[in-house]
């Protein structure tokens, strides 16, 4: 197995079918042995939908979670992934498969390739988002990513990333953050064992995605606590 694509889901049944259709249609045309893993803790019928879809797509895997947390969903799926490359994308198709494939093609040169939405860059590509998200992303990249964690990454939160599984497994025992802001700690620890390339991608803020202040508060708490070693 070459590539494992994880889609963490929490009540995404309205948006997930379109995303899966797009990814299966695209990657079935490529000469790549791949699997798609739905890492799920939903109550909207996602499980039943995936079980039916598995009859058509044998490389579709369903992983049922017992606890919430996007990071937890990604990490649990990475553990069972069969691919030598492990990755994740958002279930809302904000990063279309054509853009995700651009990351994959660079994995022969780097140990990880992550999508960048080009926020506050001259070469921004098709970035659409609300003002509050743009302001928050700017503060996040300036304070947490650069100052607190020392990462030279301009967009840590884009939901499209690919890693080498063998290197991920090296840092996995140290990972503590499992909520929506897990990306920062993951990139920080991974940067100590491998090279990371940031690549601009076309990205759209999908309808139905909402900014949550509670997640910001919890994310701030765990980011500071983890970095300072509390």
Fold and architecture overview:
The protein has 230 residues and is an alpha/beta fold. It is built from eight helices and seven strands. The protein starts with a strand and ends with a helix. The protein is 39% helix and 17% strand. Strands 3-2-1-4-6-5-7 form a seven-stranded mixed sheet, with helices on both faces. The protein has one domain (3-228): Spore Coat Polysaccharide Biosynthesis Protein SpsA, Chain A (Alpha-Beta Complex), CATH 3.90.550.10. The longest helix is centred in the middle third of the chain and has 18 residues, at 131-148.
In a nutshell, what does this entry contain?
This protein is α/β, with parallel strands linked by helices.
Write the layout of secondary structure elements.
Layout: E1 3-9, H1 16-27, E2 34-40, H2 46-53, E3 60-64, H3 70-80, E4 85-89, H4 97-105, E5 112-116, H5 131-148, E6 160-164, H6 165-171, H7 182-190, E7 196-200, H8 213-228
Parallel strand pairs: 1-2, 1-4, 2-3, 5-7
Antiparallel strand pairs: 4-6, 5-6
